[in-house]
């Protein structure tokens, strides 16, 4: 019997592959969380709201500090009665080689957009300034712990405090390691780099002992959540520069990074540095020295020339810094 070939399927009849679906809501439903919905994604992974005050974070890798150390640092901060919430890891699982952490859901919404994506107005908001002061005071009330001292700053190869008893000395050593990584690239954009590094190192070593408290290290606007009245209700995304240290360092870095790229960024850094010195009692020269140290220790984390926004920002910070510069 002659075999009659089947007709070629028309384009309309060609089956389409099923759309790529997100498997995690189904997995989370199987774990007792029906209705889980994706609410955000970042460098660390994807976050799903679970209800009942919990979220699940599906990690794209592993916490840089390791899960148990990260969990301990979160717990060290969360046990204090702060006026705002902070992350807390409540449970952990590994599914098909992927790390999933179940965490406290943090309230509020970002204080504002990051200055890389949204220009900040010339006049700093009174709500924002009050929120920053509240967060700085809150974190400065949390004592630094052994777990915090064991953290490694992003880009470095060892715990910041290893071999040191003072934050200022640990930071000085970090400056030396960071400049040794790619100092030649930075020197191409910052005149007299070696002399500026020497002045910064001398300033850091000359700083007196200070309280050792929790340092977030990256209080950019999206990392502070506020309520409808502008009050801070949550601080998130610890890890980039989280450590134990002088709370003046936190204030100095926050003044510099709140508005990094907007048209009034330089004015805002000056104004916030002045505000924090006045309201929190930190010497202006201390804040300036810490701002130079921050630029010297993060300049190469995303790029090695002025085509990278963060590198360009760090180089500009150093060229203007009164401690780093020859006019100090």
TrEMBL record:
Keywords: Transferase. GO terms for molecular function: transferase activity. Residues 1-37 are annotated as: Disordered. This is Aminoglycoside phosphotransferase. It comes from the Bacteria. It comes from Streptomyces resistomycificus. Residues 1-22 have a biased composition (Pro residues). Residues 36-260 form the Aminoglycoside phosphotransferase domain. Transmembrane segments: none annotated. The keyword DNA repair does not apply. Signal peptide: none annotated. InterPro entries: Aminoglycoside_PTrfase (IPR002575), Kinase-like_dom_sf (IPR011009).
């Amino acid at each position: 019997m002659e075999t009659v070939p089947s007709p070629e399927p028309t384009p309309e009849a060609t089956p389409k592959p099923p759309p790529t679906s997100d498997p995690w809501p189904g997995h989370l439903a199987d774990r007792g969380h029906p209705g889980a919905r994706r609410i955000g994604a970042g460098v660390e992974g994807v976050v799903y709201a679970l209800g009942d005050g919990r979220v699940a974070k599906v990690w794209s890798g592993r916490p840089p500090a390791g899960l148990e150390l990260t969990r301990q640092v979160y717990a060290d901060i969360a046990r204090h009665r702060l006026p705002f919430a902070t992350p807390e890891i409540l449970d952990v699982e590994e599914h098909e080689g992927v790390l999933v952490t179940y965490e406290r859901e943090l309230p509020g919404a970002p204080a504002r957009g990051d200055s890389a994506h949204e220009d900040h107005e010339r006049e700093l908001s009174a709500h924002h300034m009050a929120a920053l002061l509240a967060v700085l005071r809150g974190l400065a009330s949390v004592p630094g712990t052994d777990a915090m001292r064991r953290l490694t700053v992003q880009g470095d190869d060892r715990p910041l405090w290893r071999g040191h008893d003072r934050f200022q000395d640990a930071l000085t050593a970090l400056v030396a390691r960071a400049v040794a990584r790619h100092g030649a690239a930075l020197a191409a954009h910052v005149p007299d780099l070696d002399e500026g590094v020497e002045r910064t190192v001398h300033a850091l070593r000359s700083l007196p002992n200070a309280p050792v408290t929790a340092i977030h290290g990256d209080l950019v606007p999206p990392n502070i959540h506020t309520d409808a009245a502008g009050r801070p209700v949550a601080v998130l995304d610890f890890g980039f520069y989280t450590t134990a240290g002088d709370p003046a360092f936190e204030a100095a870095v926050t003044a510099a990074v709140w508005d990094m790229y907007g048209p009034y960024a330089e004015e805002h850094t000056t104004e916030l540095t002045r505000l924090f010195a006045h309201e929190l009692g930190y010497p202006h020269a201390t804040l300036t020295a810490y701002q130079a140290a921050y630029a010297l220790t993060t300049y190469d984390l995303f790029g090695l020339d002025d085509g990278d926004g963060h590198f360009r920002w760090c180089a500009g910070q150093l060229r203007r810094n009164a401690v780093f510069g020859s006019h100090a």
